[in-house]
Design a protein that fits this description.
heterodimer, A: 118 residues, 0% helix, globular, B: mainly beta
């Protein structure tokens, strides 16, 4: 079945350690996104990538890093520089619009990873 | 930057009731999305609309572009509809979404 997978579902790390969250999609989508969700707040965009080997910072990129070496994969690293890393992290993908196209694309979400830093 | 507000924040209703959740935004958009998040955390896209009205089963979404307002309706609500419903708006020219804080819906049998 086509979809987005995130692993693991729950992740615990000690303060000061870097941790990498996995996101894989087999939908052949060009664009991929990482969001963070905190209680009482809307999802906030961390990083996004519209094509392989290219990515842009979102609204809250500080303390995070990403790579996009393959179309299917968009891993997120939470570094020790992120002051409040405990959160629920969601990955999403969408078909990317061609330049000049007006069609808006739906985003498809993964199941999420709940990260707790102790 | 677009500001997205949802109301109510929490809604509890009896099974069978007609449900309305509202979303307003501050700046013109390319499209509005309604999403459903279940207790496990996964998010499912319900609707994406840029004008008028869409219907899927017992769910209906409407949008008024002039008033910058959208509503999500659930007819004949059922306990399995209990979830957080999230409104998100897309900016012109890119794929970025701005999200509301969600409406937690609880349907009591």
């Amino acid at each position: 079945d086509g979809g987005i997978t995130q692993s693991p579902k729950y992740l615990f790390r000690k303060e000061g350690q870097n941790v990498t969250l996995s996101c894989e999609q087999n939908l052949n989508h060009d664009a991929m996104y990482w969001y963070r969700q905190d209680p009482g707040q809307g999802l906030r965009l961390i990083y996004y990538s519209q094509i392989v080997n290219d990515f842009q910072k979102g609204d809250i990129a500080e303390g995070y890093s990403v790579s996009r070496e393959k179309k299917e994969s968009f891993p997120l690293t939470v570094t020790s520089a992120q002051k409040n890393p405990t959160a629920f992290y969601l990955c999403a993908s969408s078909p990317s619009r061609l330049a000049g196209a007006t069609q808006v694309n739906e985003q498809f979400f993964g199941p999420g990873t709940r990260l707790t830093v102790l | 930057k677009n500001e997205v507000e949802q109301s109510p924040q929490n809604l509890t209703a009896q099974e069978g009731e007609f449900i309305t959740i509202n979303c307003s935004y501050s700046v013109g958009i390319s499209a509005l999305h309604w999403l459903q998040q279940h207790p496990g955390g996964g998010i499912v896209s319900l609707f994406m609309l840029s004008s008028g009205k869409k219907k899927h089963g017992r769910l209906i979404a409407t949008i008024n572009i002039q008033e910058k307002h959208s509503s999500l309706h659930i007819t004949a609500s059922h306990p399995r509809d209990s979830a957080v419903y999230i409104c998100a708006v897309g900016d012109f020219g890119n794929e970025k979404l701005t999200f509301g804080t969600g409406t937690r819906l609880t349907i009591i049998p």
